[in-house]
Request: fold
Amino acid sequence: MRATPPRGRFQRWTQPLTPRVAAVLALACVLAPSAAHAVDTFQAPPQTSGTIQVKLYPTEGVATGVATRVTFGVPFTRGSVTPADVAKIRVLKSGVEIPAYVQNVAPWRHVTNPAIDGQSVRVARIQINYTFATAYPGSETITVEWGTTTRAQTPMAAFTLRTSTPATTAFSATAPTAASVSMKESVVKPASAAS
Reply:
């Protein structure tokens, strides 16, 4: 009986190295540092202005026709929005601006370059009082715009969370958000009202 060579990822190279294979390996070794350097440009380019459609999904406990506090985050690429330009992040419904509270909750950081550390917004928290016309399981679409026009609407007060919710109220003005948010197929669900 003849022994078979091992197969799979532990198989040993038993063929002699041909000049062509040796040349390819040598070229790969020479080009390897430049290929590793190309990884530095992995970040997406900045978009200093733009819009994104955001789908709002009311949960079962949200009644139509009643204002509900909705909170969600919008991520930005490095250099897209500066901390000073947070005032240029607006929320629109059918082209009309909705009053919103917008806050830079996570700046872009850089370990080795202090000149760009904290100089742009990575995630902005947006809070709006929204009146749903659609009941669960439907959705409604709003638009988040940045970089073009300063918010004209008076910003609403920051949203504060209560540590406990009264047993008689499923959702109140100070309870956690009562809606789910979807941006480009990513669904963000807020903490439940029982937290």
About this structure: The chain has one helix and nine strands. Confidence is low (pLDDT under 50) at residues 35-39, 161-195.
